[in-house]
Design goal:
The protein is of the alpha/beta class and 421 residues long. It folds into two domains: 237 residues, Aldehyde Dehydrogenase, Chain A, domain 1; 143 residues, Aldehyde Dehydrogenase, Chain A, domain 2 (3-Layer(aba) Sandwich), CATH 3.40.309. The protein is built from 13 helices and 16 strands. The chain has a seven-stranded parallel beta sheet, sandwiched between helices. It has a four-stranded parallel beta sheet with strand order 5-4-3-6, with helices on both faces. Strand 1 and strand 2 form a beta hairpin. The protein is globular and about 75 Å long.
Amino acid sequence: MKDQTDIAALMAEIGARARAAAAELAVADPATKRRALEAAADAVWQGRESILTANAEDLALGRDKGLSAAMMDRLALDEARITAMVEGLRAVAAQEDPVGEVLAEWDQPSGIHIRRVRTPLGVIGVIYESRPNVTADAGALCLKSGNAVILRGGSESFHSSGAIHACLVEGLRAAGLPEDAIQRVPTRDRAAVQEMLTMTDTIDVIVPRGGKGLVGLVQREARVPVFAHLEGIVHIYLDAAADPEKALRVVLNAKTRRTGICGAAECLLIHRDLVETLGQGVIRALIDAGVEVRADEALSGIDGTVPASPEDWGCEYLDSIIAAKVVDDIDGAIAHIRRYGSSHTDCIVTEDDAAAGAFFARLDSAILMRNASTQFADGGEFGMGAEIGIATGKMHARGPVGAAQLTSFKYLVEGDGATRA
């Protein structure tokens, strides 16, 4: 490996190795890829003490840096989270291999037969911040889809990500696949990110996973195509026909289960007819659960609320804070979400099928929900085993990006001596 102080040379070598590994992975047998992932899962479990030791070092550095409680939660690992990581690796291993899947096929009058089949993208660069489990998720999904991957984790999770990456490499080695198929940038130097964004000869797509600052930087400066994972400005709208029990359960879980993930609710919209009944009860329950409720004028009379400012609409808190606003009807809710949302995940709580239908039809978020916690906005909960991020753009992939979404396609055309007139 090149001198780590020469970032351009270091990244060029990593890219060249990834490109060579991608050529081998593209034709790797599905059973071999499955063995690699299962061996990686075993290695993570067997190495959990080393991973937790590395994570403790990251947490100590995070406390010294003054990271928020929510950021520390995103960074922290424990045995339960390592178990979930292992289960995610096994789930991806057990999935059908997407490479070579026939998406469509047909015959033409000219005598040619055409198949459209899934094919790997090539080399994927993943740039992420504090969550160390992204190392396992991204590595697994890229391997399953036949792609080599270059992982550049955040400085906060440097030691944890390194320990997890070592387990993934152990899995590759056990299955006889090239160890360069899953590489990790071995430096905290931010110049490595800048290099990745311009590596058009070796990286086929960049996936940024983190806050608005990171994603904005990537979108502004990348010359490589980007799968954007924007901030999760997640709304829940309590419709006039909301079931009180469901509303309370969904809102509390969506906000409080884990406040630091992108599927956490950040804004509560309440139909005007519910303010004196359900609205007050839900807000009271949030406050009792330790959530700071930043309320508009119509809700500010509720004891314990904090007056909202204009900056609270369209804010991703990633903390025990939620904005709350009264809307006149579903049209007002939709208008607010269109103006302030991030096209990530939005939810309606209602027993009215027509209202739910309008919400689903008129909004274009990557994920729309009805009567379900927005914390389900997760590839594992969608049955994908894991995800590399929630894509909020409209090109190629949208919503949870699993193995299938990390493929493109090619056309295979066969004839029997067919010629064109």
